[in-house]
Protein: Replication protein A subunit
Organism: Aegilops tauschii subsp. strangulata
Amino acid sequence: RNLLPEDARTPPETRGMDAKSVTPGAVALILANPTPESPDDVPEIVVQVLDLKPIGSRFTFMASDGEAKVKAILSTHFASEVHSGKLQNLGLVRILNYTCNDIPQKTDKMVIITKCEVVSQALDAEIKSEVKIEEPAALMKPKEEAAVLSKPIGGAPAAIMLKPRHDVKSASQIVSEQRGNAAPAARLAMTRRVHPLISLNPYQGNWVIKVRVTSKGNLRSYRNARGEGHVFNVELTDEDGTQIQATMFNEPAKKFYPVFELGKVYYISKGSLRIANKQFKTVQNDYEMTLNENAVVEEAEGESFIPPVQYNFVKIDMLGPYVGGRELVDIIGVVQSVSPTLSIRRKIDNESIPKRDIVVADDSNKTVTISLWNDLATTVGEELLDMVDSAPIIAVKSLKVSDFQGVSVSTVGKSTLVINPELPETEKLRAWYESEGKGTALASVGAGMGASNAGGLRSMYSDRVFLSHITSDPNLGQDKPVFFSLYANISNIKPDQTMWYRACTTCNKKVTEALGSGFWCEGCQKNYEQCSLRCTSW
DNA sequence: CCCCCCCC
């Protein structure tokens, strides 16, 4: 392990906002010490930010010391610094902790910055040093690192002496030592450095992560064309807030199901990573993890707590694009009504499942029906029924959006519901409800669509339209009416070739709007309150 | 390798 001697480091008290330039040789310093154990092992490193750009929810840039450059990626939690304008392109940042993403057979190194501070906002130009240096020490193989001597560059520390590390113990080492009876494999894993989740990749398997179980799925069995088996998923979150989904199959699924507990913290090693299928992604990570029988999972004791749930609330009037999709949504709203519990018989196996419908409203001035299932229907639903008169606010995580009644939502196995959550949104909603919502007759988000579609084509979004209960499916032919809803991109609909008209829900013939209300159907010779929307071509 | 999640 490569470390700077104490006197080569800049004392923390001199690390201020006063640095006006980069640390000469900074890139070489980083690459010579690719995985510092803690911020104490990181010398003064100030780099200039070049080519700052977003990649997904994160930002990358080229970290420049005026001479050499290295690709850098900022942990997700620095995104706000960029958005706020504090961290700017051409600005200076002091790197306080980092880890290098070491992909074998790849020459381009990447520094993952886990801690940094802004030293200066954008300078006028890119800093370019006149000094030429030779190959950075970085290109050496790990075994050769032990005796690196860095070159004196400008005003940089004269010599970078390296010493074996024995002075700083990582938390995992301490835990490891306290647990002398751990399995040898586990103990070995523990003595290694804890990697930030963001640094993991499919090409390098030698890591240990320290993560909290922030979602635990059921141990399910499945049967399909490829065979049958058992499967079990967890969502893991590290201290940077990076998340990954881990999957176990068959024996490992059974083995680890009782090991992983919601809210507990674990050291994990010897898992494998693969590119996550975008279609089924439940967390923000390009990769997903598989744990097989060789995986090492060790609880970090004394660190258990139920983490604050991270919500991504969708306003009720914005549920449309999620209809029929796989993406689950979170909703926060005021409970307006709670139905009795019903027993629903599942078609596939005749099993009875308790269900309860509740109606919630939010400050988009819309309501939506939420179907609660199982425990959420019985226990939680009963609690809601008891307090419905006080208009409780609920936060529901992981809801499936369907087109029933135009738009409605339903809990799934992993859904959670919190009554009167301590969130800023709760206060906002309460204020809205008291001042406005309570005294207003709010419409269901699905009203005017679905069975009660009387309004024709509704354009809710700039790039798409919501069509509900179209009575002709172009795949089935005009004469075979079906009922379905969809969101279609406007670009897929050719306005000049498309005729929209209102059709009778009974005979599917064109109807005319009746005087007063409803629709007159010539075919039925009857007045209807509802009609459907039909299109003659796609 | 799952990715289903119930009923109208």
